[in-house]
Design a protein that fits this description.
about 130 residues, alpha+beta, 4 helices, about 30% helix, globular
Amino acid sequence: QRVWDLLMDTDAIGRCLPGCKGLKPIGPDRYEVELGVTVAAIAGSFKGTVAIEDKRPPNSYTLVVEGSGRQGFINGRARVTLEPGDDRTRVQIAATAEVGGMIARVGQRLLEGVARTMMDRFYACLAKQVE
């Protein structure tokens, strides 16, 4: 339950999401977000929305992200599933993303690595808040 509560805490998410300049509520489980992202030699700001859908507390939810900026766009979906263990909660993520524009053309081969690094940093930051 503690892990679920943390994953639903927009202040914690905003603090831990790399490049996040804040989450602003715009509806139930829907937020406006601005991110600063760098891929290869391309750096820029992306504005978009984050929505939490198909919530099944405290077991799973789907995170839907849509964003765009001068450098391109990203649309993604991630199914987040929490599995209780003896002394820990395992968080599994199955994600897909579509990226276009200059950021995709220049950084195509690097995008998966950048996405994994951002996710690792995000969850490591959240894990420190649970302990």
